Amino acid sequence: MIHGYGPLLTILCALAVGYAIVHRDRIYATIRGDEVWRAAIIGGLAASIAGSLFNDSGPTLLFIGVVALTFVTAYLRSPPSDAPSWPPPESRARSIEGSDQAAGPVPGASDADRAGGGEDARPAAVGRTGAHPEPTGPARSPAGAQPQ
To answer: Are 73 and 41 in contact (CB under 8 A)?
Structure first.
């Protein structure tokens, strides 16, 4: 604990934990009343402290635990998103609902594919060039199934 970056890591972790405890009402306002998240944060801190005391890694383990708790705190403080942010709607080749309106040309697609009249909705580069060969021969049914 007294060699290398050990003392610095311990001081930084103590400052971060102290700040989070003093300002917990503001920092953890989004999970007020949610006992599961509160238990997860407190349990993570206790495990980090116990691990640093009883493991030979010492301050490094404490630092890893405090950084992980920082990421969890950042996640808990982030606002919920109503819509996915990626990919942007203007860059989608086809909408999620499955409409045939293309946002732009699909590389390798024929005119019939772009118009929605191709043999399937996949771009020409998949399934027609040998990269993913289509199955040939009669369709196979599960063992013991009777054809209808």
So the answer is: yes
Domain edges within the chain: 6-77
* Dist CA 68 CA 44 (whole Å): 9
Higher-confidence residue: 67 or 131?
67
Q: Residue 144, Cα to own-chain centre: how many angstroms?
A: 42
Residues constituting the chain: 148
Distance (Å, rounded) from C-alpha 89 to C-alpha 107? 18
Q: For every residue of 72-135, which 3-state class applies, written as one string?
A: HHHHHHCCCCCCCCCCCHHHCCCCCCCCCCCCCCCCCCCHHHHCCCCCCCCCCCCCCCCCCCCC
Question: Which is more confident, 23 or 110?
Answer: 23
Judge if the upstream peptide bond of residue 123 is cis by omega within 30 degrees of 0. Answer: no
